[in-house]
Amino acid sequence: MRLEKAVRAFRKLLEGYAHFEALANQLAMTPFSEKQLGHVINVVLPLPEDEEKHPRLVKARAKVVDTFPGRPSAPR
Length: 76
Hints:
mainly alpha
């Protein structure tokens, strides 16, 4: 009985991963504007509003932009 429940739960998990993969692939193919990209980066990797430099954060933001060909630079 417990083994059957575990098998069902595992199958449900695999179905969820397959659905997530399909959604991720769809999102990866969906074009969006510079403004939308900038907003996403600002939400996911915001720059603190202080006078300090944040080189690691700036580098991480640039890596995100680099995953999208034809994008000039990360928003500052």
